[in-house]
Amino acid sequence: MLNFRFKSIAAALLATSMVATPLALPTAAIGQQATASNDLAQVSRHLKAMQSLRANFTQTDRTGQTLTGTLTLKQPGRIRFEYQKDAQLLVVSDGRALTMIDYQVKQVQRWPIRNSPLGALLDPTRDLTKFGKQVSTNDPDVVSVEVRDPSRPEYGVITLIFTRTPSAPGGLSLVGWVALDSQNKRTTIRLSGQQYNVAVPDTAFAWTDPRAKGPRR
Questions:
Q1: Domain over 4-195 is classified CATH 2.50.20.10
Q2: pLDDT for residue 97 is more than 90
Q3: Of 82, 51, 46, 81, whose CA–CA distance to 199 is shortest?
Q4: What backbone phi and psi angles, to 5 degrees, belong to 136?
Q5: pTM here?
């Protein structure tokens, strides 16, 4: 059986539903439909142009518990959440599966990446006009997009939050996302110090199996 701590981390990354007010931003009217369509297209351009990303992240659950760490992403499909040292946690995707490693209890769990809301972030070929919907904010410099596959509701929903940043890929910068799992547990991910399209070696997504010796990929 998964320990409670491991379940909490899994809920943060494999959420099954999503809140309507991302990153505590107050909602407002979306405006014209053409604007929403243009924003979805811009998000698609950003995801296609974002070949890699390094950033710091802060993860906060509904109780206020916070974990920090570093995020590394490389398209297509690879991502690494390296949590603060005392957490002894690591989450890695090799493009096919999301692997969660708890070094404290020497436990490893894997899920198909397509079953995770993170699939929306890690598949730049995904057509957001079919799966995405703009969520309103009161700030014209903030773009919020909710992504779900209506034919696969069990795969969940992710609301991605961007700020308009001319120097970033596609003119947008990913600043985080907010998730609410099937048990009404809200988790917020905030990014800072984003570095786009930097060199990231494939070895960045290797990991050491606590149950055996040697790195895994």
A1: yes
A2: no
A3: 51
A4: -70, 145
A5: 0.80
